[in-house]
Design brief:
This protein is of the alpha+beta class. The strands form 8 sheets. A 7-stranded mixed β-sheet has the order 12-24-23-22-13-20-21, with helices on both faces.
């Protein structure tokens, strides 16, 4: 497929559809076979002009040179005329042919030759963007290993239906989106999410087409047809995004429609008006200057300045696992001053864990066992956190009878003939149970949720629950601060919890206890204070705020369909660092666009002035003023592909552990591993350290908080289990 760059508007006409390939003409396919003889003939023509009196022969050779090099220009010029458009192709042909009438044929031939080479190089450069998008379409294999009653057989991926079972061998690319129904393995999802580290996936985990299976055979159940996979949507969105053009792109296209005819008229005035005043003896001089003005003022570089950079940015962002729904949002990113975040599922994992246990009538181990035995029968996320804490404990003796759920408040059940209640503070207030004083204020200040265990007349213990901070959250907030952005948290969670998370992350402002409509009001107020406001979220309740903000960003791995539909930018993984990458790339893109526009304008204006005062030649006008600047704009735009993320890859596995408790075998005590900066502390070199100690100063300021693994009572070593 050849990408035609229409020089009148220079829209990157990717021929309506990127995947539709055009058959190259013989001239385009054998381009250099025509151009090299053209260069040789032109060189001989120039030598004859200066060294001999064979003027006629030199002009014939110059004409032959034009015939060899002008096919593509002539073809597009005819198409432009039929479409009633005045384009750079027409201007260039007029200038080249007219130059022979004033005995500047060699310069006209040089102009056509240089312009043909420029067109070819422009198409070659823009092909990189087209190829990058096509690579996305080709990431997923064409064949899938379908599971049948007889075994496994390869069939075309497009024939696989939702609900089919497909086998994925080690080293094989996943052909279609699905969820694992058998086996577990590490998968490289870098092609989709931009995350270079393999991700461990097991039963019921979703995997994307184009992921690479690393080490184990797995079966997946197909959840989307091949035309509807995530990778297909990314490629389709890039194509559609080109239609959602930025203001500067629309302005330049409109400008070019009027600019080119004006230049044609101006050139004609330069050709004919001065001779009328100064006499016909100056006709050749001003006619030549008019031809130069015709060439040097072509809007090629100016109209290429924006669209190519935007397409390069969209493609580069897609490779980083960031989907942008239009060029306009690349431009909008430049206006953002504040980034607002939802908390649960965005800054935190939405993965609740037990934080601490307060003992009253029972020890900590017994409190966890009783609560977990009851919560096994519940589907509530808080209950799952308690059950997960007890997964290494023996619950076989804690059989539950007469289990009941008090919806939205708690649960109750009988164990060994005793009735136990597990639930919120409000639930126990309804049961008229005397609650301990002062403790709940401390719990709220710690940013945790209290879950009470008790009977119908007393409290046995309190289990505190807290969400786990995403590892990439502090890197995101810190990265945004270093780039001059303000930050805010907008959440429906408890204000004290929000304050705690906000303090961990050094967020400027935290707004808690907000309903969806109240989130909207906060966004409205922030938009009054700041030039541009971006909102980052993942849940249904975030969709209105995403829509109202100047730039809505969805965390795609956990986002709901409504959120993905509403957002302007989608991060395909849970890696929040990608948001910083998005702002880095868009900033670079907008800077390149400004550079391209101003370079084009300055060069064009300067060369136009030099032309009018007689200090410009035709070949110089094409070689530098048109071809040179156009190629400079193209090359500058392609530097977007050279961007490299500022962050190192971080393996969460080094920051996580299955360990749940710290025990002293001598004192027979057991305590939960403490948290610091929103996550469990990590055992390292005989002590517990804050997980942020694992970072380097280049990524994030490390935390030096440590706790010795010695029992405070007997001073023996503690075990982490």
């Amino acid at each position: 497929m050849v990408i035609h760059i229409t020089q009148c508007t220079n829209e990157l006409c990717l021929d309506e559809e990127l995947e539709e390939e055009e058959e190259e003409s013989f001239f385009e396919e054998k381009f250099w076979y025509f151009i090299i003889p053209s260069v040789i003939l032109l060189g001989i023509s120039i030598a004859l002009e200066f060294l001999t009196d064979a003027i006629l022969l030199s002009q014939i050779l110059a004409v032959t040179s034009i015939l060899l090099s002008c096919y593509g220009i002539l073809k597009e010029a005819i198409e432009d005329i039929l479409n009633k458009r005045i384009t750079a192709n027409i201007l260039m042909l007029v200038a080249g042919v007219a130059s022979f009438f004033i005995l500047h044929g060699q310069e006209g031939a040089t102009a056509i030759l240089l312009y043909a080479i420029a067109e070819f190089l422009e198409e070659f450069t823009t092909d990189k963007s087209r190829n990058a998008i096509n690579e996305l379409l080709e990431l997923a294999p064409d064949e899938a290993l379908l599971k049948t009653q007889e075994g496994y057989e390869f069939i075309p991926t497009r024939e696989v239906k939702v609900g089919d079972i497909v086998g994925i061998k080690p080293g094989m690319k996943v052909p279609i989106d699905g969820k694992i129904v058998k086996g577990e393995s590490y998968l490289d999802e870098s092609a989709i999410t931009g995350e270079s580290l393999p991700v461990f996936k097991s039963i019921n985990d979703e995997i994307y087409a184009a992921s690479m299976n690393s080490d184990s055979f797995i079966d997946i159940e197909v959840i989307r047809e091949s035309s509807n996979t995530v990778v297909a949507k990314i490629a389709e969105s890039i194509k559609l995004a080109r239609q959602n053009k930025s203001k500067s792109e629309r302005f330049i296209e409109k400008f070019a429609r009027y600019y080119t005819p004006i230049i044609l008229i101006s050139s004609l005035l330069v050709m004919f008006i001065p001779p009328l005043f100064f006499g016909l003896k100056y006709f050749n001089i001003w006619f030549y200057r008019g031809l130069i003005l015709l060439v040097v003022s072509c809007p090629c570089a100016l109209t290429l300045s924006t669209p190519l950079a935007n397409i390069a940015a969209l493609t580069k962002l897609a490779k980083e696992g960031i989907l942008v729904k239009g060029n306009v949002f690349i431009e909008k990113a430049n206006t953002i001053e504040l980034v607002a975040f939802d908390k649960t599922g965005t800054l935190t994992e939405g993965n609740l864990k037990v934080f601490d246990v307060y003992e009253y009538s029972l020890d900590k181990s017994e409190i966890i066992k009783i609560a977990a035995s009851l919560e096994v029968l519940s589907e509530h996320p808080i209950g799952k956190a308690i059950v997960n804490q007890a997964k290494h404990m023996d619950l076989s003796l804690y059989t539950v009878d007469s289990f009941k759920i008090a919806k939205g408040r708690g649960i109750k059940g009988e164990i060994h003939g005793h009735t136990y209640f597990v639930g919120s503070k409000k639930y126990f207030e309804e049961l008229k149970v005397n609650l301990p004083e002062g403790i709940f204020e401390d719990i709220e200040l710690s940013g945790t949720i209290p879950i009470l265990l008790g009977t119908n007349n007393k409290i046995l213990g309190i289990i505190t629950i807290r969400d786990v901070l995403r590892v990439s959250a502090p890197l995101l907030v810190d990265g945004l601060k270093k780039r001059g952005f303000k930050s805010a948290m907008i959440s429906g969670d408890n204000q004290l919890v929000c304050n705690t998370i906000g303090a961990c992350l050094d967020i400027d402002t935290s707004y808690g206890e907000l309903l969806p409509d109240q989130k909207l009001e906060e966004i409205k107020e922030l938009k009054k204070k700041y030039k541009g406001v971006a909102m980052v979220g993942d849940g249904i309740n975030d969709a209105p705020a995403l829509a109202l903000s100047d730039l809505g960003i969805a965390i795609g791995a956990s986002a709901t369909d409504l959120t993905l539909e509403t957002a302007d930018v989608i991060v395909m993984s849970d890696d929040l660092k990608k948001i910083v990458t998005f702002f880095d790339i868009t900033k670079k893109t907008n800077r390149i666009i400004r550079q391209n526009i101003w370079t084009s304008i300055i060069v064009k204006v300067t060369f136009a002035i030099l032309t009018v005062i007689g200090l410009m030649t035709l070949w110089l006008a094409v070689g530098i003023g048109d071809m040179g600047v156009s190629l400079l704009v193209l090359i500058n735009g392609m530097t977007i592909f050279r961007y490299r993320t500022k962050f190192k890859d971080i393996s969460v596995e080094h920051l996580e552990s299955d360990a749940k408790s710290i025990i002293c075998k001598t004192c027979e005590t057991k305590n939960i591993i403490p948290q610091h900066h929103g996550r469990d502390m990590i055992e390292k070199e005989g002590k517990l350290v804050c997980w942020r100690k694992m970072f380097s100063n280049d990524d994030l300021e490390p935390c030096e908080e440590t706790l010795p693994l010695n029992c405070p009572h007997c001073e023996n070593d503690l075990e982490v289990v």
